[in-house]
Amino acid sequence: MTVLEGTGVRLRPVAPSDYPAFYGWYEDPELVSPFDRYAPETYDEFVRSVEGAGDDPASLAPRFSVDEARSGRLVGTVGHYVAHPVLEYLDVWYLLGDPAARGRGYGREAVFLLVDHLFRTRSIERVGATVDVGNVPSNRLMEGLGFRVEGTLRSSLFHHGQWHDVRIYGITRPEWATRRPPK
Fold first, then answer.
1. What is this structure's pTM?
2. Rounded to whole angstroms, how far apart are CA atoms 146 and 180?
């Protein structure tokens, strides 16, 4: 079982005891829907998607739980998925579900640990992310980690009754090799 240790956060395998918190975060329209689709599902469907994520490279289910390193408290989750059926790269995503954990650099460190792990363990040359243009904190996070804006997909994500533009971010293996852990 892979555990990724940082100074502020620890990424560990998802445990069944995490499911209720994850489900609550995903079902909270104020937490998820400002920048993504809000698509409620039943708890059992959610659990099946999480438990099946390991066998499905395109799954958007959580891959790691994010704990605050000092206290061990669950504060979020991160994941990755095959974003395109032909192109060979992975997209990452992240969610700090605990509002008290935001603004402390936990998201930045969690994404750093995940991306570093992916480059160390996978034969990929690029990691990407797709971010709603209105999600200022996430755009800052990606740019702060050295991801480059590669383009904008106009009117490509529908939520809140309207179409939203998203930014496509990417970083290559050689670019990542120059990055240092966030402080």
1. 0.93
2. 10
Half-sphere exposure of residue 162, counting CA atoms within 13 Å on the CB side? 7
83 is a domain residue: yes
How far is the C-alpha of 92 from the C-alpha of 127, rounded, in Å?
7
181 within some domain: no
Of the candidates 152, 140, 147, 137, the residue with the CA atom closest to the CA atom of residue 169: 147
Judge whether 183 lies within some domain.
no
Amino acid making up residue 25: W
Q: Which residues contact 111 (CB under 8 A, 6 or more apart)?
A: 78, 92, 94, 141, 142, 145
Q: Could you read off the pLDDT of 40-64 as tens digits, one per residue?
A: 588 998 898 899 888 888 888 889 9
Range of the domain at 128: 4-176
